[in-house]
Design goal:
8 helices, Metallo-beta-lactamase, Chain A, 344 residues, 2 domains, 8-stranded mixed β-sheet, alpha/beta, single chain, 7-stranded mixed β-sheet
Length: 344
């Protein structure tokens, strides 16, 4: 069997299984029998997997319509190529449970839940959801994905503990739940990335400046070091889902383009903690988002109403591509944002 490889000025045509017609630099034509690897197999080996079908449904945020409960909290159901993930669990114990039922969404088949960070408005529903859904399916929400720092002590200044997630962990594990900690980015499913802790390259400082955390090196300013987001690699570009975006929307998207690929941003969804940002900061943010080619923005929770409309104008996005999110709002790759009647 002939086995050789010409690395320059060689043209190859596939004739059949194992048959190749080649032309060498000198012009001679050779017929060689060689093991064949299908072209689609080669392409799959060098091209990263992409998400073909993506649907994100909001289950907790401040704005709600006739069907749904609004609250200062956040949660969303992710459905990506048949894989389902609950991202955050809302603030009150039963909000996500009731909103899902109103929307006729069965969460009992969801195994993985992501906690974006330690704040109670993102973790408050975890124990109730695990307790009730596991009665139907023991594997329901049985794995909680977190980043280092989420269980660090946060003193409340009065001798107590401000981090409610510490107690939530004990209750969750008592119900059979498992905590999975990610110190770096991980591909949870093909084309679905969890960032883990996000490097703070730009000084966005999207957190309270008064909190403190008992880090391994001692008591320091609480920058919410565990803040993490989901990133979806699609043929249209990257889609990012964040809880509060305490790491900063620009930092998150910049990191996403580093760990996944430097593609345009097709959509950024939900909380970006910009409700208190002044116009100068919003101008800077809009400039960075424009550089990244953002096409859709669905802002809710701590994003701020003024922020959403201000960014829409600065980015020149059409009305249907930059909206305030509500309970039941949906984003899909095929149709973009379906915000509901009130937010439209």
């Amino acid at each position: 069997m002939n086995r050789w490889l010409l690395l320059s000025s060689v043209s190859i045509a596939t004739l059949g299984a194992g048959l190749f017609l080649t032309q060498a630099p000198g012009g001679a034509v050779r017929l060689a029998v060689t093991p064949v690897v299908a072209l689609h197999t080669i392409q799959a080996a060098v091209s990263p997997p992409r998400v073909d079908s993506l649907k994100i449904t909001i289950l907790s945020t401040m704005l709600a319509e006739q069907d749904g409960i609004g609250e200062w909290g956040f949660a969303a159901l992710v459905e990506a190529d048949g894989n389902r993930i609950l991202y955050d669990t809302g603030a009150r114990p039963r909000t996500v449970l009731e909103n899902a039922r109103d929307l006729k969404i069965d969460l009992s088949g969801v195994r993985d839940v992501i906690l974006s960070h330690n704040h109670a408005d993102h973790t408050g529903g975890l124990v109730t959801l695990r307790r009730e859904l596991s009665q139907k399916d023991p594997a329901a929400l049985s794995r909680a994905h977190v980043a280092p720092g989420i269980f660090y002590s946060r003193p409340d200044g009065h001798g107590g503990e401000a981090n409610t997630t510490i107690a939530t962990r004990r209750e969750y594990e008592a119900l059979g739940g498992t905590i999975v900690e990610h110190a770096k980015a991980v591909e949870m499913f093909p084309g679905v990335w969890l960032t883990g802790p996000v490097p703070r390259v730009y000084p966005e400082r999207n957190w309270s400046v008064t909190g403190q955390v008992a880090a391994p090196g001692g008591l320091v300013e609480d920058t919410i070091p565990e803040d993490q987001a989901l990133v979806f690699d699609t043929s249209r570009g990257l889609v990012m889902l964040s809880g509060c975006g305490h790491a900063g929307i620009v930092n998150i998207l910049d990191y996403a383009r580093h760990i996944v690929r430097p593609a345009p941003v097709y959509a950024a969804i939900r909380g970006f903690h910009l409700f208190a940002a002044d116009d100068a900061k919003l101008d800077w943010t809009a400039g960075k988002l424009h550089e990244m080619g953002i096409q859709n923005l669905l802002g809710a929770h701590c994003t701020g109403l003024h922020t959403v409309y201000y960014l829409k104008e600065k980015l020149g996005l059409p009305r249907q591509a930059c909206l305030v999110g509500a309970v039941g709002a949906v984003f899909t790759l095929e149709k973009g944002i379906a915000p509901g009647r009130l937010a439209r």
